[in-house]
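Intended use. Records such as the Phosphatidylinositol transfer protein alpha isoform entry shown here are meant for training and evaluating sequence-to-structure methods. They are not intended to support clinical decisions.
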Amino acid sequence: MQNHAIREFRVVLPMSVENYHVGQLWSVAQASKNETGGGEGVEVVVNEPFDANTNKPETDLIANGQKFTTGQYTHKIYHLSQKVPGFIRLLAPKGSLEVHEKAWNAYPYCRTVITNDYMKENMYIIIESFHYADNGSTENIHNLSGRDLSSRTVVKIDVANDKVPSKDYKPEWDPCKVPAPKSGRGPLPQDKTGEWMNAVKPVMCCYKLVKVWFKWFGLQKRMESFILTQEQRLFLNFHRQVVCWQDNYHGSTIEDIRRIEAQTKEDLEKQRREGPIRGTMASDKDDK
């Protein structure tokens, strides 16, 4: 594999690993609706189980010394032609601004592979997520070695206190303002110490290892840096939503979530054909 850029994001959350399993899936369905409209956004192609014989990944799913062989496989297409910075739109050939996301969710481990048909082997984003009941203190949960370990940068994300760009901020997505009484969580403390991550119970961490390769002469480092910055932004915004939406999915089961996902697939297809462009990137379309 090439000398990709690599970064490990650690997102600490005030909930259990079991609760996050439901909350992540519920929030992905909701967030997909928020990102879809006006011809842009998320198209769900496949959402079905995988095992050793069906929809299996090319390489084994291994993290924290464990091997995972069953779970849920999804294939999504993100239509992004109006949701990228202007300098990319000027350079990108027509039809190239679609990305394919294939994910094998063998919770508590998940591997997500993002590719582009135009770029082929010259572009990929691989996100390996492991969800663990600690406050982000495990040093090498992805069992890295060699170059990947030596070049990895660790970034800890504080969903309560990290700065959110004004264009992303909504008070209803602010964990310092929004409690979850059904879940037994009050507003998170608004301070810069991050001490809440050491004191809150239950607590868990999403360890998200991101590898980025973008081979394009003159743009490689700029694009890899841009992608990693956007991943950090998305992780912060999404997990603030997961925390604030806790009471919406409180008490839900995985069976409930699968029914929601089936309905969401239909809703997204309709929504993508109608209405205005929505979402995180919509306000950035003229960024340089």
